[in-house]
Amino acid sequence: MMKSSTGWTIIGLIFVVYIFLIIEVSAEVKNIRTLSDVIDDHVNVRDITLSSNSLMLDRNGDVISEIFRDENRVYLPYDELPALVIDAFIATEDQRFFEHKGYDAIAIVRAIASNAKHENIEEGASTMTQQLARNLFLTHEQSYNRKMSEILYAHEIEKNYSKQEIIELYLNSVYFSNGVYGIEAASRYYFNKPSERLTLAEAAFLSAVPNNPSHYDPIKHSDRTSLRQAWILQKMLELTFISEEQYEAALMENVTLTVRQKIDLHSDYVTYIHQEFIDLIGESEGFNHKFNSTNSDDEKRLIEQSLNERVQDLLQQGIHIETTLDPFVQNLAIKAIHRHVPEHDIQSSAVVIDHQTNELIALTGGKEYQKFDFHRGFQMYRQPASAIKPLLVYAPYLEEYQVPIQSTINADNLCIEENGKPYCPQNYGGGQYGVVPLSTALKHSYNTPAVRIMDRVGIDTAFSYLEPFAFAKVDSDEHRLASGLGGFTYGVTPLELTRAYTTFAHEGSYHKAYGIKQVTDKEGNLLYSWDQKEIEVWSKQTNDKMRKLLAEVMTTGTARRAQVNTPYSGGKTGTSSDYFDLWFVGLTDQYTTGVWVGKDKWSSIAHISDRAPHLEIWRELMN
Predict the structure, then answer these.
(1) Active site includes 348?
(2) How many C-beta atoms lie closer than 10 Å to residue 454's C-beta?
(3) 3-state per-residue secondary structure call for 552-614
(4) Which of 206, 204, 183, 207 is nearest to 195 (CA)?
(5) Are 513 and 358 in contact (CB under 8 A)?
(6) Tens-digit pLDDT profile for residues 141-193
(7) What is the distance between the alpha carbons of residues 161 and 167, in angstroms, rounded to a whole number?
(8) Residue 25 scores a pLDDT above 60
(9) Domain named Glycosyl transferase family: which ranges (predicted)?
(10) N-terminal to C-terminal alpha carbon distance within the chain
């Protein structure tokens, strides 16, 4: 009886322990993580994306700039990959690709035996999936730890992607030396043609490179590449990917490299478009609103950093930035500047806007301009001198008082008290001309009439007419009479001023001209475009009067040398104090063009003013 009682006690204890173990094990099982979960902590296998070159195109659809940093890659989907290239890699890298699940056990055993025999890691037995895992997530260190990680990652890739998707990723990620990634970029770089046009011999030649990119560099070691090419062709023949006739013909074909350099044209214009693209993303995705809504410098820096990161992310997605560049006009502007400003220490910038389509078709950054250097077209702020008068003085006056252009104004010297101090401007050379018509005052660029007009209109009222143009460095500190003569603290850029003058071509309404027409993805789907806004600055009646006044500047005024044979032309010159800057901004029926000439470091260019290079450049462009 006692034995029986003891037995039941032991059974009871065992049962309690069993229940306890079940509870504990169950708790531990809940904490057990799958291999996929562990891998996900290190890499995102389920969302593999590869960078792709972005393109910038001119108005004709021609590429003017290929945009990439470290990896030159043109991404191709599976159905566009050449079958010859797929066959070449399967024949030489992974013959059992469509059978295994990421790793080839038979090949691994064979490699281990070979490595043990040689007491070194000489065979890797990597499948294409393993190579893809290594290219994306791992280093190229030769160790069994790296090999084990490679196998685990490859297994996860096979679980999440089809064989076709793996081939697509592999052939777009594999390295072909000289900074080139993927078969399409390799074909364009080494043979200057798309991969779909590769011959069998060329396809095998390129397929040789990734096995050891430095050893088989086609440019430095083409003889080695050719040897491996022959071996690849032999493998393709053995697996019946090609016929005997194809094999013999490919061996006989002379493979000739046609190395193509990165497309990078029109550096002046392209540099500007990079900045306009940042502005477009900032405006489209709300970065600009956030930036303008905070007064914290730290927050502004973070917003700018986020914006730049977003821009770089987009540029790695293979987007197409379609611009309005007219290559002919761009090249003409550069040549005209060199022809009329040959002095090495004097610079110039030209801006050409097709105001009929509201497009920026040309923009120069300076003589001998290098990409991403300081750009005199949109980064340089200079005093506009009298070129500002039509916008800040005469148009506001006509709009506010509705006076006829035959009305008169005093052109003698004057002194006006401003902020408790006398302001006594003079005309150029100290001349006094009595009472003159408005047209005379403007076409001869008299200073004292402009000051009298601005004083009558009111400084704040006059400056309200500049607000639609959003001159970046013209603020309330500039609200003084001297600004009516262009005497700003910082000034305006040639691009800003030329854009503002397009108002005279749009019946008094301002349409900001851009260089980016639209941004699309690789398939042509629209991603971004500018929201074209129209702002009425002054009435059509005022605008008609201004066009007549500006036309007289060219027929009988300071811009006579800029006359062109067009139905309409009009504009305004500007010469800053001591001849630091020469300006002319004018328009025809189709174009609004601005030209600036000066030195980077403010100093006089009076010795070339008689040649009027700004007018000569403008006339050559408009003719």
Answers:
(1) no
(2) 26
(3) HHHHCCCCHHHCCCCCCEEEEEEECHHHCEEEEEEEECCEEEEEEEECCCCCCCHHHHHHCHH
(4) 183
(5) yes
(6) 655 565 677 888 898 999 999 999 999 999 999 999 999 999 999 999 999 99
(7) 10
(8) no
(9) 61-236
(10) 124
The 10 Å Cβ neighbour count of residue 507 is: 15
Contact 503, 542 (CB under 8 A): no
**CA dist., res. 187 & res. 165, Å (int):** 21
* pLDDT (tens digit per residue) in 312-329: 999 999 999 999 999 999
Q: Residue ranges per domain, the chain?
A: 54-252, 347-622
* 93 is a catalytic site residue: yes
Annotated catalytic residue, options 54, 65, 173, 386:
386
Euclidean distance between CA atoms 250 and 449, whole angstroms: 83
- The type of residue at 470 is A
Q: How far is it, in rounded angstroms, from Cα 311 to Cα 363?
A: 22
Q: What topology is assigned to 54-252 in CATH?
A: Penicillin binding protein transpeptidase fold (1.10.3810)
Q: Give 182-217 pLDDT, tens digit per residue.
A: 999 999 999 999 999 999 999 999 999 999 999 999
Tokens 């043609």 belong to 193
Fold of 347-622: Beta-lactamase (3.40.710)
Catalytic residue among 66, 93, 478, 620: 93
DSSP line for 165-176 = HHHHHHHHHSB-
Model pTM? 0.89
Residue 406 DSSP code = T
* Confidence at residue 45, expressed as pLDDT on a 0 to 100 scale: 76
